[in-house]
């Protein structure tokens, strides 16, 4: 699963570059708080990776 998340992240970076958007991965985050914000339980679904997008 983590390998799949890495592949998805790389695809997001490639698409963002094509669209001339800036991207950065968040190296550390409080997954419990993110799960609460997203309304997921952390057991069946959980946050694994956060990438931000924006105009540089």
UniProtKB/TrEMBL annotation:
Coiled-coil annotated residue ranges, if any: none
GO molecular function ontology, one term from the record: oxidoreductase activity
Signal sequence annotation: none
Nitroreductase domain mapped to chain residues: 2-55
InterPro entries: Bacteriocin_Proc_Enz (IPR052544), Nitroreductase (IPR029479), Nitroreductase-like (IPR000415)
Pfam family, one: Nitroreductase
PANTHER family: NITROREDUCTASE MJ1384-RELATED
Protein name per its UniProtKB record: Nitroreductase domain-containing protein
Species annotation: bioreactor metagenome
């Amino acid at each position: 699963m983590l390998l799949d998340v890495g592949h998805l992240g790389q695809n997001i970076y490639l698409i963002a570059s094509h669209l001339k958007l800036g991207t950065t991965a968040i190296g550390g985050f409080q997954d419990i708080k993110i799960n609460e914000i997203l309304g997921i339980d952390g057991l069946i679904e959980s946050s694994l990776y956060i990438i931000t997008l924006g105009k540089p």
